[in-house]
Structures are given as structure tokens and as C-alpha cells.
Write a structure and sequence with these properties.
- This is N-acetyltransferase domain-containing protein.
- It holds the Pfam family Acetyltransf_9.
- The protein has two domains: 128 residues, Aminopeptidase (3-Layer(aba) Sandwich); 135 residues, Aminopeptidase (3-Layer(aba) Sandwich).
- By secondary structure, it is an alpha+beta fold.
- The protein has a 13-stranded mixed sheet with strand order 1-2-3-4-5-15-6-14-13-12-11-8-7, sandwiched between helices. The chain has a two-stranded antiparallel sheet with strand order 9-10.
- The protein is globular.
- It contains nine helices and 15 strands.
- Strand 7 and strand 8 form a beta hairpin.
Length: 354
């Protein structure tokens, strides 16, 4: 078996391998947003037939460290082995090559998300758990038909009516519904407007939120529309159209998932914005009809307020899909990150998956 980094000639069999291994229509589009992807895609090639039978890909990320610092992380993804090549230790060998390359690139830690953690334990990865809340949606107040919002394209939001702060309304606008192609970022909704709120919210007392990816312009422009392609996006706006907060919801058959919340915590009206977005969540939950709403958000007084407004008798669960291992950093860095994740101080957003 030949182990090496991928070449352009490998791409057809590489994509065929992923098609066999995963039911993940976003895998290739997300992968192709990375211009340097082939040099960081480690493959096992069958010497007889020349096809790719194993793969491990990684991408560099800047992420918050445990002490207000910034770490360089190697994000592992697209790990696959053809059925006929299993049992030969290919994943472990390819991961070893990938981690060695990360070290040369200056990575402090390696990060991945998986539903099969046992595959990675022998390569030094440890799971970390992030608490989340699940519960029935609280009853939604009757809509005032005189206050239903429309987005700029005339799509009915089916969202909550505007909340008002004094004489000035906070208007919740629908910017995207599932099944409608993601609009090009524009003046009406520029990624920069959301990025400012995200960056303000994604902080802890001493610096960047641990584990959270430092999003680049390319990330916002390309990857966010892909990862949230099945989601609903709402913005809370002042009367002049200024975006004061945003919300990403993903409806699934039995659950409505809160994927992302963004607001400037230092803004004087932050609580009113969160209340408006919570009310929108309730109206969407009752519109879709799932029995459960899942709130997976980082620790903050505003996220606690949001969850309390949305969930009736919530039950705590834990997301254990994340795994970490040290690369150049000492082991205690990973231990601190795992401990911080257990209290939701460390957090990784679904829009930053690898």
C-alpha cells in the first residue's frame, strides 16, 4: 500500500471513496473551498489498481486557547477507508502522517468531530463533551397580524412580531429559509454585519473563546453558506435596518436545532434582541411542529436567558462528537480545553465544522 499526499490524478477515485463511505453531500463542496487541500490530504493507494482506498484530510485553523491566547489547530476531516482495505491500520497510519505534517506547520493541537470516537483513540485523540439543552418549546403568544414581518424579497417570515424597546422597534427579518438557494452576500445582508456580532459574542473575559475558530473572510463568504445551507437565518434589526443580532435555526423531522446566535453583549439592547430572537424561535418551532427544541450554545448570561425563554422543562444532554489531541502543545493544554468545554466556556460552532 502506498501512503502519500494526494495529487490531481487521485481526485476522481478520492471522491468515489467518499461517496461510498459517507452520506454527506456537503463534503466535497466544503473540501473544495480549501485551495491547499491536496497537499494536506493523505491517501492510501492500492498498488495493484491505483485507486485511493484510504484518506485523511486536515486544514489549519486559528482557535481560542485555554488562557485567552490563540492556538493553531489542525482540523481533521474526510477520514475514510474502503471496505476491502479495512483492518490494515490505514487510518492510524494516515493520521500519523497528518499529525506529523501538522507539527511541521506549527499546529498546537489537532481537532476533529466524529460519531465513531473509538477509531481515533489509538491515535491519541480524546473526546470532549459540550452540554446542551433539549425540551419542548414554550407556548408561543398569538401573533399580532398587523405586525407580521416580511423580508426584503417579500417572503413571509412566520416569525414573531417585532418586539419594541420604548418607541423603537426591534424587527426580526427572515433572511433565508430552507430550500431557497443561499443569497449572495449583499448590502442587505453582508457577512461583515454578522461577523462583527459573532466576534463580539465569541469572547470570554480574558480573550477569544476557547476552541472557537477565528473566522476569516473566506470562511464567511464560502463555508458558512455551505454549512448552513439547510438552515433558517433571521436578523434582528433596528428601525434604520442596522443588524443588532442574528439567529440560525436548522429544522429536522423531530427537532428544531439552534445552530448559532450572535449579538453584541455590550450593547444596551442586547437582552431585548435576544428576547426577540427567542420569540422567533418559538414561533418557528410551533410552525414546524417538532416536539423538541435543541439549544447548543456557549456559556453566557444571554444564552441562558435565550434558553429559559424557549424551553419548557429542559433536559441536559451532552454532545460528545468532538475530539482533541496535542501536537506541539503540552498535554495540559488539551486537558484545560476539555475541562472548559464541559462548562460550555470552550465551544465550537456548527458553522465551523471541518
Amino acid at each position: 500500500m502506498h501512503l502519500r499526499t494526494a495529487t490531481p490524478d487521485d481526485v476522481p477515485s478520492l471522491y468515489a471513496l467518499w461517496d461510498r463511505a459517507f452520506d454527506a453531500p456537503l463534503m466535497v463542496p466544503v473540501y473544495e473551498t480549501d485551495d491547499g487541500r491536496l497537499d494536506r490530504t493523505h491517501v492510501a493507494v492500492d498498488p495493484l489498481h491505483g485507486g485511493v482506498v484510504g484518506s485523511v484530510y486536515w486544514a489549519p485553523r486559528e482557535a481560542g486557547g485555554p488562557h485567552g491566547d490563540t492556538l493553531r489547530a489542525g482540523g481533521v476531516a474526510n477520514v475514510a477507508t474502503a471496505p476491502e482495505a479495512r483492518g490494515r491500520g490505514l487510518v492510524r497510519a494516515l493520521l500519523s502522517r497528518a499529525v506529523e505534517q501538522m507539527g511541521r506547520d506549527g499546529a498546537d493541537v489537532a481537532l476533529l468531530f466524529t460519531g465513531t470516537p473509538d477509531v481515533y483513540r489509538s491515535s491519541g485523540f480524546e473526546t470532549f463533551g459540550v452540554p446542551l439543552l433539549r425540551g419542548a418549546p414554550r407556548p408561543a403568544d398569538d401573533l399580532d397580524p398587523g405586525q407580521d414581518d416580511l423580508d426584503d424579497d417579500g417572503l413571509p417570515t412566520d416569525a414573531a412580531p417585532s418586539d419594541r424597546v420604548g418607541d423603537t422597534p426591534v424587527r426580526v427579518r427572515t433572511d433565508r429559509l430552507p430550500g431557497i438557494p443561499w443569497p449572495t452576500w449583499s448590502v442587505a445582508l453582508g457577512w461583515e454585519q454578522l461577523a462583527v456580532l459573532h466576534d463580539a459574542f465569541d469572547r470570554v473575559a480574558d480573550g477569544p473563546r476557547p476552541l472557537a475558530t477565528r473566522r476569516t473572510a473566506g470562511h464567511w463568504e464560502q463555508r458558512i453558506p455551505l454549512w448552513y445551507s439547510g438552515a433558517e437565518v433571521f436578523t434582528a434589526r433596528a428601525a434604520d435596518g442596522q443588524v443588532m443580532g442574528y439567529l440560525v435555526l436548522e429544522p429536522e423531522p423531530d427537532v428544531l436545532k439552534v445552530r448559532e446566535l450572535g449579538v453584541d453583549p455590550t450593547a444596551g439592547r442586547a437582552r431585548d434582541v435576544v428576547d426577540a430572537l427567542a420569540r422567533t424561535t418559538l414561533h418557528r418551532a410551533h410552525l414546524h411542529g417538532p416536539a423538541t427544541v435543541e439549544v447548543r450554545l456557549p456559556a453566557h448570561a444571554l444564552t441562558d436567558r435565550f434558553a429559559a425563554a424557549v424551553l419548557d422543562a429542559p433536559v441536559v444532554a451532552t454532545d460528545t462528537t468532538g475530539m482533541l489531541r496535542p501536537v506541539r502543545a503540552p498535554a495540559d493544554v488539551v486537558a484545560h480545553l476539555r475541562d472548559a468545554a464541559a462548562t460550555r466556556v470552550a465551544f465550537h460552532w456548527p458553522g465551523d465544522y471541518l
